[in-house]
Amino acid sequence: VEKVDLGYDGWIPGDGLAPVWLTLRNTGATEERLRVIARSRSSRNEKSVDLPAGGKARVFLALSVSWRMSIEVYRGEELLFRREVENAPRLEPQTHLIVIDGRPAEARKGEATRGDSRLKVTSIDATNASPEAATYTPLGGVLLRSLDPGDLAPDQRAALFEYALLGGTVYLVASGPERLKLTQLLKSLPGKDTKEKILGRTALVRQYGMGRVVTFGDDFVDDMVRNDPRGDRLSSEFSTLLGSRTNRARLGPTYERFGGDVDHPGAGTAGMVVIFFGLYWLVVGPGIALGLRRAKRRTLLLFALAAILGFCALAFVVAGTVRTASGGAHVREVVLVAPEGPSLAMTDVTVVSGGGWRYDLHLESTRPF
C-alpha cells in the first residue's frame, strides 16, 4: 500500500459516506489477487483487485461514517496491511465547501480556514474526486476550480451530474483558459442559462434536475478565505448559501408510468413459517392436552406420533418453499416535471426476495442513465 486517502483531505462527512482511496503496487514477480476491505461500526465495503507483476492500481471504496474505521488488505487469508482511523476530523456538511482543484499541488492551500470562520474550505486533487454521488449528497455544494473537465474520469463527472440532478449545487469557478473549458462543461447539460446575482457578482445558473450548476466568471476563493473583513463577509455569505441549498433532493410533481406497490420482501414465505409453527404448538400442545384429555393412553400415543410425523413431513415442504420461493423485481419509472429546466425520467427498481437463495440481478437498459 503506497498511499491511503481518506475522506476529503482527511476530513470525513458528519452525515453520509466517506470516500476512501488506496494506491496499491505489486513489487513481486507474479500477479497478485488482493482483497481490500474498509469497515466501520455501521458498514463494510470490499473489493477484489488483480495486480499484475510490477503493476499499480488505485482502488475506491465508499464507507458509511463512524468514529472508528479500519482499512485492510489481504492476500487470501493473509493480512498484508491494516490501518485504523480513530477520531478523524469531522466535516460539518452545511458549513464545509469541497473544492476540486485543478491547480498544481504547490498552488493549493489544502484546508484554507480559520477557527472562528463559519465556512471551512477543503481543497482536493481531481484524482480524489468521488465516482459516487452519494458521497456528495450531505454537502450544500461542490466547487470545481480552474479544472479541465477532461482531467476527471467519466464516472467522476457522472457523480457530480447525478449529485446536481438529485438537488445539489455544483459551482464552477475559473479565470483564463480554464473558464472556457468549465463553461463548455456547463453547456453540455440540457436547459438554458439565467443570470443571477450571487455573492454580489453575476453568475450563470442552469437548472439541472432538482439541483443546479452555477458558473462564476472570476476566481474568488482566495478572497473568501482571506483573514480580513472582506473574506469574513464572503465566507459568511457563502456559508449561508450552502445551508440554504442542503438536502434539497426531493421529488416534485411526478407522473408514474407503470409499476406499483410491492409486498415486504419474503412476506409470503415468512407468513408460512409463522402459520406452520403456530399450528404445530396448538395441535401438539394444547390440542392434545385439551382435545384428548379423556382419551385412552394408546389413542393419545398414536395421535401424538401421527401429529409429530405429519408436521415433520410438512416441515420439509415449508422449508423447501421458503428456500426456493421465487422473488421479483418491480420497476417504477417516474417522469419529473420540474418548475424550471428540463424534465427528466427516474427509474426505481425494488428487488423482492422470495426465499433463502441468493441470486445475481442483471439490469439492462436501451438508453443511458
Structural account:
The chain has 369 residues and is α/β, with parallel strands linked by helices. It has helices at 154-165, 177-187, 221-224, 229-245, 267-291, 297-324, and strands at 3-6, 12-13, 17-25, 32-40, 44-51, 56-64, 68-75, 78-86, 90-91, 96-101, 111-112, 120-125, 142-145, 169-173, 193-198, 201-208, 211-216, 254-256, 328-336, 344-352. The strands form 5 sheets. It has an 8-stranded mixed β-sheet. A 4-stranded antiparallel β-sheet has the order 5-4-7-8, with no helix packed on it. A 3-stranded antiparallel β-sheet has the order 1-3-6, with no helix packed on it. Strand 4 (32-40) and strand 5 form a beta hairpin. The longest helix is centred in the C-terminal third of the chain and has 28 residues, at 297-324. It is elongated, with a radius of gyration of 29 Å. The protein starts with a strand and ends in a 17-residue tail after the last strand. The model is unreliable at 110-116 and 247-264 (pLDDT under 50).
Give the overall form.
Answer: elongated
Number of helices: 6
Structural class: alpha/beta
State the share of residues found in helices, binned by percent.
25-40%
Side by side, the strands of the main sheet go 11-12-10-13-14-17-16-15
Mean pLDDT: 79
Round the Cα radius of gyration to an integer and report it: 29 Å
Number of strands: 20
N-C termini distance: 34 Å
